[in-house]
Design a protein that fits this description.
Chain B: InterPro entries: 2-oxoacid/accept_OxRdtase_asu, Pyruvate:ferred/Flavod_OxRd, Pyrv/ketoisovalerate_OxRed_cat, Pyrv_Fd/Flavodoxin_OxRdtase_N, Pyrv_flavodox_OxRed_cen, THDP-binding, Transketo_C/PFOR_II. Chain B: Keywords: Oxidoreductase. Chain B: It comes from Desulfuribacillus alkaliarsenatis. Chain B: This is 2-oxoacid:ferredoxin oxidoreductase subunit alpha. The complex is a heterodimer of chains A (283) and B (562). Chain A has 283 residues and is α/β, with parallel strands linked by helices. Chain A has ten helices and eight strands. In chain A, strand 7, helix 8 and strand 8 form a beta-alpha-beta unit. The longest helix of chain A is centred in the first third of the chain and has 15 residues. Chain B contains 21 helices and 21 strands. In chain B, strands 9-8-10-11-13-12-19 form a seven-stranded mixed beta sheet, sandwiched between helices. In chain B, strands 2-3-1-4-5-6 form a six-stranded mixed beta sheet. Chain B has a five-stranded mixed beta sheet with strand order 16-18-17-20-21, with helices on both faces. Chain B starts with a strand and ends with a helix. Classes of the chains: A alpha/beta (283), B alpha/beta (562). The interface between A and B is large, with 53 and 63 residues. Strand 2 of chain A pairs parallel with strand 15 of chain B.
């Protein structure tokens, strides 16, 4: 089994007690249990506390710009489908700044796992509302309370045809790990919205709140039932944990690209032919 | 100005002007030198579009303002073209397509030609082919070649369509032969075989020659043509084409493709590039190469969407926050559109910097003839290394270039970060490392200047007046110095507009009079010459109404300051 842990001790920038620590452990264990090689895995992330994740895992990474992890991830996977690609970030990063990419990459169905740490607040910029913040939550900017309706990532993903939609809670690291493993092995776009507390800036949605407001999908839950998944996703009083929906056998973005129709070799490894280009200039 | 005849076809969008243009340019190119360009309105149907085809027995690379032969395909065209009509202009059109008072005022002559009427027995859609035949008849072009072209174009449709088009062509051709006295340009005895191409295809071919195998873009005129060109080459050249949800995604995708080892391109216009600016900065910081084709059109904002301007030089040179090296190429002719685009991919790869190809609507939409060129195989050589365990993506080096690995190739890990980082790609807030990394990135400038795309001096090397131009003003300025009787004038064509090499200074030192000609309102290259090389220009000749410079116009404006 390969080690995704660093040998030296890390200077981790998360607050003590932050939910990101548990998610990190879940992700590292998931990668190891899937027996992936660090050289074959790439994590693409944006900006925010969650997006620092690849810094703390010994793996290939592209830690780019706020909201832009998805376009980078999709391009990496398309240019070299042999790589295992994960896009990771927080709720502001993925649903706010990167909202347009979130929408359109669901439509593409790239074969990537999309892990979103959702703590319903902007932590790195000191506690402003995020797209998933509860209504009426008071912040230094939303001084009279959040007026906007919270964004529902699971319902949006389902409505756009996402082929894997799941929710996890960092307080249950074993389940989170299992869901991440399924997301990585799912053929197609896989969204995992991961609840976790922001111990510094979100005093409402704390560890206890998540424990009280989330419930487990039953053992006989049918993840292939779209209508049931939508019903669960739209319930914003009680939050279901587990894989809400999975549809297998849908063609992925890469599979549909003409460059891979008759040739599986990643484009980055193909030889280029200048003589053929010169022909375009002949009379 | 060289002796030439300018043929203008004017009609509405959707009337098939571009098909006639392609036919005519290809058949004219067999016997003459030719350059053609378009003036198109921003609408899908209707309006007033024109195609100008300029024919000469000497090489030409630009269009002229005045019209010799004008063909009106719809009634409301004339007013717009009025300023380009002289008393020597011969107009062909339906009866009444020009008001008698206007005709009298400009003293042009008018000949009745109703192609739709002539096409009646074949169907209205054959009017175009009749016009093609008519003009070919005036010029006495090789009829067999023209008929062959028609066959090639329509043979996928049906034999009947080919045959009817050929008949319609012949009707026009015979009628046109009555006017051969209107055309007095000598045809070439042994025409040199030249490739007929437009700027868009030249950039596209250059991209393929540079090993481009990934393009992500959001459509925006006039940059879209390159996306369309590569989309047609998907199968033959293994190009991965994706229409992104926006320009922001487009350039982030392109950067992601380079990180993985592909050679990616984004094509856009100034307005789209404005959205890509944050990703330009990302390329700078992560030292992930990228190539962007910026097809300029008049701005700001939506500006004049289908017209031309050279006003995004500042944007290209200063795009992105923070300080990092980049390269800006500005091809002015078809050969350079191919060669500099090819080179862009190599430079981006070698130095791990963003490289911009700055063209404009005029260069892209114009068709001309191109000399044979040799594509350089070395530009396809990747500078990617196989990594070893412990690989450091941002290793400090003397020339600023750290060996670049890609994920999955070798046993090392490729760690790239938009935060300031150490040699291993880990986030750092060390003041010392920050300075080391910033210096490392900026050290690449020296290498970029070593690879400087040389400027070209055209005209007498013993000049005292130096005209300076970049990009698509190449054609008019070259023609000016080639035909100018004052031998003390030369033209410096600057192809790499950033960074500028100090060896350019010697060109300026020799000149008593420096004139910069630019298709913008503020003299952006002139300003850059001052900043980069401390060169003060004596005159700036500027135009920014949405049209390119014309050869006759530029001559007149240069005379004013000479």
């Amino acid at each position: 089994m390969k080690n995704f842990e660093f040998e030296q001790e890390l200077d981790i920038a998360w607050c003590p007690g932050c939910g990101n620590f548990n998610i990190r452990t879940s992700l590292i264990e998931a990668l190891q249990e899937l027996e992936l090689e660090p050289e074959q895995v790439v994590i693409s992330s944006g900006i925010g506390q969650a997006a620092k994740m690849p810094q703390y895992i010994d793996v290939n990474y592209f830690n780019g710009l706020h909201g832009r992890a998805l376009p980078v991830a999709v391009a990496i996977k398309a240019a070299n489908p042999d790589l295992t690609v994960i896009a990771e970030g927080g709720d502001g990063d993925m649903y706010g700044e990167g909202g347009n990419h979130f929408i359109h990459n669901i439509r593409r169905n790239p074969n990537i796992a999309h892990l979103v740490h959702n703590n319903m607040v902007y932590g790195l910029t000191k506690g402003q509302a995020s797209p998933t913040s509860k209504k009426s939550m008071q912040t230094p900017v939303q001084t009279s309370g959040v007026a906007n309706e919270p964004f529902n990532p699971l319902a949006v993903a389902l409505s756009l045809g996402a082929t894997f939609v799941a929710r996890a809670f960092s307080g249950y690291p074993e389940q989170t790990k299992e869901i991440i493993k399924q997301a990585i092995t799912h053929e197609g776009y896989a969204l995992v919205d991961i609840f976790h507390p922001c111990v510094t800036f979100n005093k409402i949605n704390n560890f206890k709140w998540y424990k009280n407001n989330c419930y487990q999908l039953s053992a006989d839950y049918n993840r292939n039932d779209f209508n049931m998944a939508m019903e669960k996703a739209l319930d914003v009083e009680h939050f279901a944990l587990g894989v809400l929906y999975q549809k297998q056998g849908q063609p992925t973005f890469e599979q549909q690209l003409p460059v891979y129709q008759n040739n599986q070799q990643p484009i980055v490894h193909r030889k280029r032919d200048l003589d053929k280009v010169s022909e375009l200039l002949s009379l | 100005m060289k002796e030439s005849i300018s043929i203008v076809l004017s009609g509405e969008a959707g009337q098939g002007l571009q098909t006639i243009e392609e036919f005519l340019v290809a058949s004219i190119a067999k016997e003459y030198y030719v350059f053609s360009t378009k003036d198109v309105m921003s609408r899908i149907r209707g309006g007033n579009n024109t195609v100008q085809i300029r024919v000469a027995s000497e090489k030409i690379y630009a269009s002229k303002q005045t019209i010799d032969l004008l063909f009106l395909l719809n009634d409301d065209a004339f007013e717009r073209l009025r300023t380009k009509v002289t008393k020597g202009t011969v107009i062909f059109g339906k009866k009444g397509s020009v008001k008698a008072s206007m005709l009298e005022e400009c003293e042009a002559s008018f000949n009745e030609l109703d192609v739709e009427e002539l096409a009646k027995e074949y169907g209205k859609i054959y009017a175009n082919t009749i016009l093609y035949g008519f003009i070919a008849g005036i010029m006495q072009l090789n009829k067999d070649f023209c008929l062959q072209q028609i066959k090639e174009k329509f043979q996928n449709k049906s034999d009947k369509i080919v045959e009817t088009n050929q008949k319609a062509f012949t009707v026009g051709f015979e009628k046109g032969q009555q006017y051969t006295d209107l055309f007095n340009i000598k045809s070439l005895v042994n025409p040199a075989p030249l490739k007929v191409l437009d700027g868009t295809n030249a950039v596209g071919i250059g991209a393929l020659a540079g090993g481009c195998n990934f393009i992500a873009s959001y459509p925006m005129s006039p940059g879209t043509g390159v996306l369309t060109f590569l989309a047609k080459k998907v199968k033959d050249f293994d190009v991965l084409v994706e229409q992104a949800e926006d320009e922001i995604a487009a350039l982030n995708m392109v950067i992601g493709s380079w990180y993985t080892g592909a050679r990616g391109l984004a094509t856009t216009s100034g307005g789209g590039f404005a959205l890509m600016v944050e990703a330009v900065s990302l390329s700078g910081m992560t030292e992930t190469p990228c190539v962007v084709h910026i097809a300029q059109r008049p701005g700001p904002a939506t500006g004049l969407p289908t017209r031309t301007e050279q006003a995004d030089l500042n944007l290209a040179v200063y795009a992105g926050h923070g300080e990092f090296p980049r390269v800006v190429f500005a091809p002015g002719n078809l050969e350079d559109a191919v060669l500099l685009t090819q080179k862009a991919f190599y430079i981006a790869d070698k130095y791990q910097v963003p490289v911009f190809i700055l063209t404009d609507q005029y260069l892209l939409d114009s068709m001309g003839q191109m000399e044979g060129i040799t594509l350089d195989e070395t530009y396809l050589q990747d500078s990617i290394i196989e990594t070893e365990s412990g690989y450091k993506r941002y290793q400090l080096t003397e020339n600023g270039i750290s060996p670049r690995g890609i994920p999955g190739f070798g046993s090392g890990l490729v760690k790239v970060d938009s935060d300031e980082h150490d040699e291993a790609g880990q986030i750092t807030e060390s003041f010392e490392v920050r300075v080391q990394m910033n210096d490392k990135r900026l050290r690449k400038r020296a290498g970029l200047l070593e690879s400087f795309a040389e400027a070209e001096l055209i005209g007498n090397a013993d000049y005292n007046t130096l005209i300076v131009g970049w990009g698509s003003t190449y054609g008019v300025l070259k023609e000016y110095v080639e035909t100018n009787t004052d031998s003390g004038v030369a033209f410096l064509y600057v192809k790499q507009v950033y960074p500028l090499h100090e060896k350019l200074s010697t060109y300026f030192e020799q000149a008593d009079n420096i004139i910069v000609v630019e298709n913008n309102a503020t003299g952006q290259l002139a300003n850059l010459l001052k900043i980069e090389l401390n060169v003060s220009v004596n005159h700036s000749i500027l135009k920014y109404n949405g049209e390119p410079f014309f050869v006759d116009e530029v001559a007149q404006r240069l005379q004013e300051v000479l």
